[in-house]
Fold this protein.
Amino acid sequence: MIRSPRSGISMVMVLLVATVASCMGDPREQPATLPPVTAVTRTPSTATPTVADDAAAENAVRAVYLDFLANRNRTTRIPPDRVHREVARWLTDPELSKSLDSLAAARKQHLRNSGLIKPDIMSITVDGATARLEDCMDKSATYLVDSRTGRRIAGSAGSADVWAVSDFKKTAEGWRISSTSSKYKSCVDR
């Protein structure tokens, strides 16, 4: 709950007046009866986000994104009964549902991610409770593996130049990726 500075000052003034009033006058006299306290109305802060708030949001978005990429390979190895809870650490719908469907399909086909994505974040734009991250990632060291044999799937190597765009939503749990898209083209040819 956000308290406005005025409501805090009002409460302090009421307490101060009550304290002073009870301390004044002849101690043999009856203390003055104060009127009942009425509900205090609190209005949310209308302060605009500061540069520090935007920087904190950008850092949080970056951290979620990089953590997701670092754990990408592990998501294809998570047991089906735990995959939703684990993937929800980074994703929210509609991307969460899309990814869970992809992971289920990969599991049925005995496919698993392998290799590392090298991110090169170009920009992060925060607008209130949404954000967009653009990445010129190198997926050339990624490939698929047959989960039964552990062998690399021929022709499954990623591209060296992928322009990836991830949209984020700020949820009760923090920043989460809500949608992604990729373009397999040079990032400088936007």
Q: What stands out?
A: The beta strands are 111-115, 121-127, 130-137, 142-146, 162-171, 174-183. Residues 51-75 form the longest helix (25 residues). Helices lie at 5-23, 51-75, 80-87, 95-108. The chain is about 35% helix and 25% strand.
